[in-house]
Design brief:
Blueprint: H1 14-17, H2 22-32, H3 40-47, H4 56-67, H5 72-81, H6 90-104, H7 108-117, H8 126-141, H9 144-153, H10 156-159, H11 166-175, H12 180-189, H13 191-195, H14 199-211, H15 219-229, H16 233-245, H17 250-259, H18 268-281, H19 286-290, H20 300-316, H21 326-331, H22 334-341, H23 352-361
Helix pairs in contact: 2-3, 5-7, 11-14, 12-15, 14-15, 16-18, 20-23
Pfam family, one: mTERF
GO molecular function: nucleic acid binding
InterPro entries: MTERF (IPR003690), MTERF_sf (IPR038538)
């Protein structure tokens, strides 16, 4: 689909064009085609935020964005998020920002991602916002290439006003003894945790994680902070109760969280189905599962159940010992599992490869 030249619903000045209602806008939109790749609903929504008497500047903006590698999808998304992008001067406002970011090290594809996700960034001042933000991040992360990688991972880092959330949230970490190296990892791996969490909430989480006995110098500390800020209090309480319903004590829940913070990020449904399988189907003690919370991250259908079937076949034929640690078989990577428990026994159990492959590739798997 080609881009259509303006006028279009999102650009037409209603007063000048005589458009009296949203219905008229929709009809005109259908007559002229899809404006900038927007749906009629998106065009109407955008038209509430921008009014142009002439399509000239909008055409220049579109040409500028196309010439910098943005495709129709990128442009449509950017305009939907920030319709006033079409009112900006390509030469005076857009080009200086694009040139600056290119010199800094951002590739065309990365700039396309930035503009389509957070188009307001290229409307911000280089001196007052972009440069100070990049300098702040570089002071923590270390190199420009790392800053580029972090922003490529989350454009929020460049969109956010770092003084409002990044500074106080990082201060909360540093005050509790988290080393700069760990702060840097948090910025690179989980930037949204710093950018989207209010300072009050973030500080509460840092205090709570520290209070659980996790040492601030450990990588697991930032993993735990990220996990906790990602879960609302009501959801946290719900997951707490889900674990308790399967026999875990509060101490066991906290202990499991210290070992593997991700265990509190899964949905209650996933938690319950995993606990149900390990405790009721395999017959494991709740306390045993609490000591190996990483087991809850695996897909029952694609990993746990197929591997357990293999182990049960091998056990029934006396090919593995009864006291073998099944947790080891469930946690090792796929290649090692195949080598140790499937291909190793091709002569004694030639059907294992076919059965195992069938289960891991099928969506319909019966309980073992």
């Amino acid at each position: 689909m080609e881009f259509h030249r303006f006028p279009s619903p999102i650009l037409i000045c209603e007063k000048n064009r005589g458009i009296s209602s949203e219905v008229d806008q929709v009809e005109l939109h259908h007559q002229q085609g899809s404006s900038c790749g927007l749906s009629p609903e998106a065009a109407i929504k955008a038209s509430k935020w921008v009014t142009l008497k002439t399509p000239k500047n909008a055409d220049l903006v579109l040409d500028f964005l196309r010439n910098h590698g943005l495709d129709q999808t990128h442009i449509a998304k950017a305009i939907t998020i920030h319709p006033r992008l079409l009112t900006l001067s390509p030469e005076k406002i857009l080009k200086p920002k694009m040139d600056f970011l290119t010199r800094y090290g951002f590739s065309d594809s990365q700039l396309s991602k930035i503009i389509s996700r957070d188009p307001k960034i290229i409307a911000r001042s280089i001196d007052k916002h972009i440069t100070p933000t990049l300098d702040f991040l570089k002071g923590l992360i270390g190199t420009q290439s790392d800053v580029v990688a972090a922003i490529d991972h989350s454009t929020l880092l460049l969109r956010s006003f770092y003084q409002k959330r990044l500074v106080p949230n990082i201060s909360a970490l540093r005050e509790h003894g988290v080393p700069v190296s760990q702060v840097s990892k948090l910025i690179i791996k989980y930037p949204n945790a710093l950018c989207m969490t209010s300072p009050t909430r973030f500080r509460e989480v840092v205090v709570a994680v520290h209070g659980m006995g996790i040492h601030p110098s450990q990588t697991i500390f930032i993993e735990a902070v990220k996990a906790m800020v990602s879960v609302s209090k009501s959801n946290w309480d719900g997951k707490f109760e889900a674990y308790k319903s399967f026999g875990w004590s509060e101490d066991e829940i906290v202990s499991a969280f210290r070992r593997f913070p991700m265990c509190m990020m899964y949905s209650e449904k996933k938690i319950r189905s995993g606990m149900e399988y390990y405790i009721k189907v395999l017959g494991w003690e709740p306390s045993y599962v609490s000591r190996h919370p990483v087991l809850l991250c695996y897909s029952l259908e694609k990993r746990v159940m197929p591997r357990c079937l293999v182990l049960q076949v091998l056990l029934s034929r006396g090919l593995i010992k009864k006291d073998m640690k099944w947790t080891t078989a469930l946690t090792i990577n796929e290649m090692r599992f195949l080598e140790r428990f499937v291909t190793k026994y091709e002569e004694e159990a030639p059907e294992l490869t076919r059965v195992y492959r069938g289960m891991t590739e099928s969506k319909c798997i019966a309980a073992v």
